[in-house]
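User: Sequence in, structure out. Go.
Assistant: Echoing your sequence, followed by the structure tokens.
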Amino acid sequence: VSWLCSPTRSEITSLDSGNIDDILNNADVALVNFYADWCRFSQMLHPIFEEASNVIKEEYPDKNQVVFARVDCDQHSDIAQRYRISKYPTLKLFRNGMMMKREYRGQRSVTAIADYIRQQKSNPIREVQDLEEISSLDRSRRNIVGYFEAKDSDNYRTFERVANILHDDCVFLSAFGAISKAERFSGDNVIYKPPGENAPDMVYLGSLTNFDLIYAWTQDKCVPLVREITFENGEELTEEGLPFLILFHMKDDLESLEKFQQEVARQLISEKGTINFLHADCDKFRHPLLHIQKTPADCPVIAIDSFRHMYVFPDFSDLSLPGKLKQFVLDLHSGKLHREFHHGPDPTDVAPGQPIQDLASSPPESSFQKLAPSEHRYTLLREKDEL
């Protein structure tokens, strides 16, 4: 009765394969609760999630401004698999149908969830009032600067949409009208200012109203193809749900890193989105090296961490052989590396570099596994810290 009589009650949208794309694509921001009914933490989150939705609905009454939705992962395992959901409950943020890399890991409280949504709705672009502000940018960051004749324009709306998605990876700034005129000698303009005081600017040359083009260009500048994994960002990278292809190298061995970056770009650009390309400092990550029976003296070393096992690329000197690195990754996706880990080389194959240790069953854990807590440990963390 109280549900029927409550005028502020907002309904959580249940997603299924028939409506998910339409609902998410039309939502400026959507927070989706991936849950399982048998999970008591999912049960505890339901009323909190609903109340947070009520609070936000009063502030953003337009149904497409903010959507709170849920997916029953037992009933819709295809959706859970599509978004690589493996633990419950998981809260994922979507913008115009695109899932953000970082899941919500804040407190499971009405206040915290509501504050998180307000933050997501805030303007990700800083408007500059004088071009002198551009000359004093923090050049340790990746900066994207847009120069526009008017804020009320299709060009700026596209720029704003891109910034909403990538603001965690780049700093976005804009200037308008007379302030930006000196930089608009050929029309509205978007420039990437990479890290480094002497790094040259890069100009976007495509259509400013073509979202796909400018998003792809900006993502390429804001998110390096090969990223460094550290103890600070390891858990965040793990949350993306993709296995790791890692180059372990000494910090001052930039030559090996450059070779790895070149071959990833040459052989594996089509695999972006199926595996994360990373590099790690051998000295800092001695522990995962130990699990594959390597030491910093063996670096550079290439390995795949699937979060179940680690597989070693046979020989770093084979890196530039055409298709060699790509086949290594394809063998992961096909299950060949996993199969050979347990049963030895396929009868028709010459044995590749043998995977050394089963991280899932061995008592020790690699540093990467510690950065990617197991389902059981993650549940305990949520019980203690979030619920």
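User: And one key feature?
Assistant: The CA atoms of residues 247 and 260 lie 7 Å apart.
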